[in-house]
Amino acid sequence: MNAQGRGRGRGQDRGRGRGWGGGRGLGRGRGGGRELGRGRASHHQTCAACRHQRRRCEGDCRLAPYFPLSRYEEYASAHRLFGLGNINKIMNSAAHCERQGAAESILAQGRAWNLDPVHGSTEIIRTLLEEIDRHEKELAVVNQHLEYYRRGGQGELDPSLAGQSSIVCQASPEERGKMKAIDAHQMVNCDYGDPSPSTAGTSKLEL
């Protein structure tokens, strides 16, 4: 009786062991399934906007294509400047083909104000406008000299353009022919006081 009881006890213990073990194995399998599900859900990477809001980024997030997580710092600066509501308004008001440009403009504004909290992008715009004005004046000077030599040196140069800038340009063979250059390798050095050609090492207009 004692031997039979012991045998039954061992059999029951073994059965219980197998049962719990199987249950635990099934649990691991379910856990693995959940992990696979999470892997599929995380295939869509969180965008910078959703990360900043600490919310889940869905696959249909409209800001995700324009504000990737790799540009989070730039977006954070833009968010401090505009706020999420204004960013959404700007993006929604832009046509589909213009949204990438709108996003780049938003990020650029954020960078500018982050670097210069006082002037922001105003200083950058002022510098660019000054460069445009300078290049327009240089272009006017070059065009006047080209027209002067097309006329064979007849007429006078506009003295109001004197002293605007120093411009270095390489004259093409055709222009050198129009300007009556003596040699194809001869360059032109001219100023307002003496617009006659000379044999300088490079073609330089000193104004």
Automatic annotation (TrEMBL):
Highest taxon in the source lineage: Eukaryota
InterPro entries xrefs: LOB
Start and end residues of each LOB domain: 45-146
Region feature Disordered, mapped onto this chain: 1-41
Pfam families per UniProt: LOB
Compositionally biased tracts (Gly residues): 18-30
Family: Belongs to the LOB domain-containing protein family.
Protein name from the UniProt record: LOB domain-containing protein 25-like
Gene symbol of the encoding locus: LOC116193687
